[in-house]
Amino acid sequence: MAAPQLPATILDQYSAWMFEPVSVHPGNSVMYRLSYEADVRFLKVVRKGWFPSAEAEAIRTLWVRTYIPVPEIIDHGVTDDTTWFLSGALEGDNATSQHFRSDLLGLVHRLGAAIRQLHSIPRADCPFSFDLESALDHADQRLRQGQIDPARDFHPEHGGLSAEAAVRRLIASRPDSEDLVVCHGDCCAPNILFRGSELAGFVDLGEMGVADRWWDLAVATWSLTWNFGAGYEAAFLESYGVEMDEHRMQYYRLLYDVVS
Q: What's the whole-model pTM score?
């Protein structure tokens, strides 16, 4: 499938700028780095029907800017085929950058503190929700529309499950309660930026909303292993300030594979 088309208004306005794709979901979304001399912008273009939309991400980023550092949304819009937004650049580097690796334990502690800061946003202020009722409805809709592809979407831990079996497991093993906070929704290390030892901000907020804190913690601990190797989960959870909940961790990791 061809990449989503760039909006004509941006092509006209930024005709002298260099466009470099930096993150691609083939046929569905592309993040471009736009540069002209010392100026940098980021343009995200998402095919209509793909979750989450660029429109959803722009709206959430605009809202949460009052509480935490995030990119400035310069413009956003919808075309016949796509949703898109244009943002400024944060002054910092994502947590997987090489120069943070000389002190991985310190980095892990900073990540735990950063996510705790995000989760401290007043829940009642947040107009977006991805609680389990919403998430399971979304999973069922994706299943009925044939949008869950285990070969493409599932990590090796879930590789033996069909789409139907994964959704059935989520329904059957649903936790009895939810510890609701404002969650990032895709809480991987590359989506958190630092400027030296200071938090520079969060990116990729299209799935942000009120949800169980383990929606973020399960994915954050998973991401530590993907990006830095095994052995950092305990230090992260200690710095965040919570004890391990194995059931919720496994549950929300499967939910993560199913919903997007």
A: 0.95
